[in-house]
Design brief:
Length: 126
């Protein structure tokens, strides 16, 4: 499979899983409100797909969501096959990722630095 095709398939799978995640009724997913599919990596032959899941509520919630998504992988594979019209859908492997949580931390640090900088500038003006 070419890089272009696997990249396009990765993006399509990410989009489909993001949409279907909100429809799943598994309590481990909490309706998918705070969950994010960070990225999908489809293997070169198209037989495997790693799906990276992150939660704004923390890494533990992401791990719990991975368990819920793993149990719903059959349903998700069927939906992916139907939408993309694939003969063989890739095996889905869900991996917890803490990048959303760390990006929120970085944003808060930058915001506090910006506030400190504004205070320093105001003190110099006086």
């Amino acid at each position: 499979m070419s890089k272009v095709k696997s990249g396009r398939m990765s993006e399509d799978i990410r989009r489909i899983i993001s949409a279907k995640m909100r429809e799943l009724k598994d309590p481990r997913l909490n309706g998918g409100s705070m969950l994010t599919v960070i990225r999908c990596d489809v293997s070169g032959d198209g037989s495997y797909c790693k799906v990276y899941i992150s939660s704004l509520e923390g890494f533990d919630k992401a791990k719990e969501a991975v368990k819920g998504l793993t149990s719903a992988s059959g349903y998700l594979k069927r939906e992916i096959s139907n939408v993309l019209k694939l003969k063989k859908c890739p095996e889905l492997k869900f991996i917890a990722d803490n990048s959303a949580e760390s990006s929120v931390r970085i944003f808060e640090k930058l915001k506090s630095l910006n506030i400190e900088q504004d205070i320093d500038e105001n003190e110099q003006d006086i």
